[in-house]
Amino acid sequence: MQKDLSFLEIIERYVESDRVTLPPFDKTALRIQMEIQKKDAGISKIEKLIIADPAMSSQMLKLANSAFFRGLSKVMTIRDAIVRLGLDEITRMAMILTQKKLYTTQDTFIRNYRNDLWQHSLVCALVSQWIAREAGFEDLTQEVFFASLMHDIGKLFLITLIEKVKESKEFPFVPSTSIIHEIIDSQHAIQGYNLLKKWNIPDRYCQVIKEHHDEKFDTGNIPLIILRLVNKSSHKVGVCIDKDGSDEYSITAEANFFGFSEIKLAQLELQIEDASKRVSSHYRIGK
Length: 287
Ligand SMILES: [Fe+2]
Ligand SMILES: [Fe+2]
Prior knowledge:
The protein has 14 helices and no strands. The protein has 287 residues and is mainly alpha-helical. The chain is globular, with a radius of gyration of 20 Å. 38% of the residues are buried. One fe (ii) ion binds at residues 151-152, 188, 212-213.
């Protein structure tokens, strides 16, 4: 127990010392999202934002010319890609591409962990849009996508930090997987919140990340409730990191809030399984 405490103390010291950081947050996707929400949203501004990021530009062109659009003329410019894919899809892709970068910069020790984390986060993001539509909050689909994609960013930060602690030899033994999970589970919401604050992400997102595991939820914060529902449901069906089959994830309060029936909840689980397959085949890290 003493060793467990010491390990936690070392983690806390690392957090306080700012010795470990994730790469800077890429705000391109958020800027695109803000742009399309304007009444007079202009394609040229969005086009400029995408062109400024060559990696993102090439991915967008690849997507616009993918098998799905086979038979149509080849898209050569970002402007044509925006027209073909539509502003919603462009924004979603920009979010996926900018976030994915954070997960690919880590090395082997955390490979499995970060792959599962990415899978879980992106599945939650995709399915949160389905929940928003089913619950009558169509206008929140972009917001819930981003909040869900980011909701466990504190876990990515902590696993990166734990890896550094291990490398530093400051700790005399390798902590067990269960200790690592315990620390990450209890600390990631607040660490994620701190990280988002540091990155100057709008406060509404910071609150969602901070409160996503709180016992009670703010009934005025719809994106938070949507995230809680998709997050717990994905744990129930095993699309998560710690696949312990735990049934501590009661979704009753969130489901009741939206008036979701048993049938709707079964559909939700199917959506999660389906999204999980899509992420595995199209959006895996390294793809
Ligand atoms: Fe979480
Ligand atoms: Fe989660």
